[in-house]
Amino acid sequence: MKVLVTGAAGFIGFHLANRLLHEKHEVVGIDNLNEYYDPKLKRDRLAILKENPGFTFNLIDLEDRQRMPELFLNAGYDVVVHLAAQAGVRYSIENPFAYIDANLVGFTNILEGCRAAKVPHLVYASSSSVYGANTLMPFSVNHNVDHPVSLYAATKKANELMAHAYASLYGLACTGLRFFTVYGPWGRPDMALFKFAKSILEGSAIDVYNNGNMKRDFTFIDDIVEGVTRIMKVVPQADLSWNSEHPDPATSYAPYRLYNIGGSNPVDLMRFIELLEDALGKKARKNLLPLQMGDVVATCADVHDLEAQIDFRPRVTIKEGIQYFVNWFRSYYSV
């Protein structure tokens, strides 16, 4: 296949592009290499991808209304996997306009490009953050998600709605994937595992929010990539049993589907820290703090729909995954 991967220098985008290239697909990657976190990490990921002759890279902003249409012109993509976004719940409080530009304007450019080029399948990253104020566990794609608690979450929910509009209007087949706390080698420095590992090794205290009374459905990067590559091959069809009087948010009369990809095994934050301490061979000093604005206390993914569709659910345990990350971290930073 010929696949466009947006955010190819990002955490998930890099791993997905690398997997596709090793499977002999042709990958066109785009990224703007912004400074939300250390661009060197992005450049180093990109350098690995560029070693493969099947990879082509474009330095471009999603919101560039002149250059983005050119990316789709006579390109002949079989699938577009849209992973680029302004990430981070907390940063959306500091810089909301970055989220409007990348996540709303940028996603519109992706949808328009796919529509104009008649792309057979758009797979895009949503987020577990869309569940917002929901507390019924596990979080299901069949639940309504109308109460986001951060602007980041609101933009991801908006992406799902925008995708449905294009599926309905133009028959653009759209699949949204709600990722749950992705972690692993080459991960993002703004995520807890990366920040905790760095601080513990430096002897600095780690900030532990809500006094540690948190649970997260951590999902290892290889499981995310496995799910995405399988879903890429499953083009959604109109659900003929869809009932407008009792609408299922996960499906539609249009070619549109939503899935969770999560470990389905939430881990207490304090247990997570213990496992990291074991992997590092060093204890953490903890700075206990109240719950931050925009945070949720717990997440847990219901992946029954995903399992039924592609016969897959995440498999890597949190203990294994943390050890894989620590091995990479020590190697990359020569610690």
Description:
The protein is 40% helix and 16% strand. It is an alpha/beta fold. The model has no long low-confidence stretch (mean pLDDT 96).
* Count, helices: 11
SS content category: alpha/beta
The unreliable regions are: none
Biggest sheet strand order reads: 3-2-1-4-5-6-11
**CA-atom Rg in angstroms:** 19 Å
Nearest-integer average pLDDT: 96
Strand content: 15-25%
Let me know the largest β-sheet.
7 strands, parallel
Order of helices and strands: EHEHEHEHHEHEEHEEEHEEHEHH
Terminal residue distance: 39 Å
Q: Could you give the count of β-strands?
A: 13
Shape: globular
Main attributes of the structure:
single chain; 335 residues; alpha/beta; seven-stranded parallel sheet; two-stranded parallel ribbon; 13 strands
At a glance:
The chain is of the alpha/beta class.
Itemize the secondary structure elements and their pairings.
Blueprint: E1 2-6, H1 11-22, E2 26-31, H2 39-50, E3 55-59, H3 67-72, E4 79-82, H4 91-94, H5 96-117, E5 122-127, H6 151-170, E6 174-179, E7 182-183, H7 192-202, E8 205-208, E9 215-216, E10 219-220, H8 221-232, E11 256-261, E12 267-268, H9 269-280, E13 285-288, H10 304-310, H11 318-332
Parallel strand pairs: 1-2, 1-4, 2-3, 4-5, 5-6, 6-11, 7-10, 8-13
Antiparallel strand pairs: 9-12
Helix pairs in contact: 1-2, 1-8, 5-6, 7-9, 9-11
